[in-house]
Amino acid sequence: MRFSAPFATAVSLSLLSLNSVHGYGILGHTLTGQVAQLFLTPETAKQVKEILSPYYDGLLSKAAPWPDTIKGQAKYRWATILHYVNTPGDNPPQKCQYEYVYAGKDVVNGLFNMTSKLQQYKSVEPVTPEDRSIREDALRFFVHFMGDVHQPLHASGKARGGNDAPARWGRAKTSLHRIWDGQLILKDIKDRFDNNPKAYLDNMIEMTTTVWEQEAKNWTYCDPSENTGDNPWSGSTTVLSTLCPMEWASFMNSLDCTYVWKDYDSSSDYSSEYFDNVTGEKSDYLVQKLITMSGVRMAAILNEIYDPPKTILDSTRFVKQR
Prior knowledge:
It is built from 15 helices and two strands. By secondary structure, the chain is an all-alpha fold.
């Protein structure tokens, strides 16, 4: 995979305000959507705008948090458990193990399902308002699940993904899950980028051509036969060379051993040394990297669906469009 585009800082982040965001449900998902938007081809961006309601202005960043806002609605109760995967066989940091569950009710199968729906409605244009609503829901869930599957604690069953793992953040009591859902991001933006989310985003895009350049070449490709072959939607998902949720979930799960749960101590202050270890140079700017991975991969899949490449190489090449 090749990356080819100059770095540019003219990015609109009017949606992001540290005074109005609380946790990964808003800020993290908004950032992944912003990253993805920058790599959509013009044709894909056009298709996305047509699918989403006018309220979203064609912006993935604006649509990304939606699935968290409707969790209490009876209509969408079925989707509540699709935001994560359970990993009953692991016990981080001693043992990390992810195994795909065929037709399981989890984020990996949620991604297969939503991607399949997007492909279905690309092949056969929806006619009824109900079909158009289903297609829009599929896109909004897809964008959100792409963020969830790149949050390591959404791939850890221990202590309910860290929700039941108490921790300290300065003087405040919190949980390991809340730390990864938002507190790491918020502090990183505050400490290194003077409370400027736009600068944080610009820095992530810049690192795809500098710090992460060699690694980023492999972000958007996997072997579909190993990642999508054995799932209920394989009839449509196997044709996508950029859809790799099994591989992603397995990697996120491994991070639970190497970083997330390492030396877990409920009495430790996670806003100091731990924070430095997972956001700074020691970890290759891990928190930012996961957000960027999610957005780049999201764009690659949408481009492959809505603006099909001529070759497999083209499908795994991500090019900054804006």
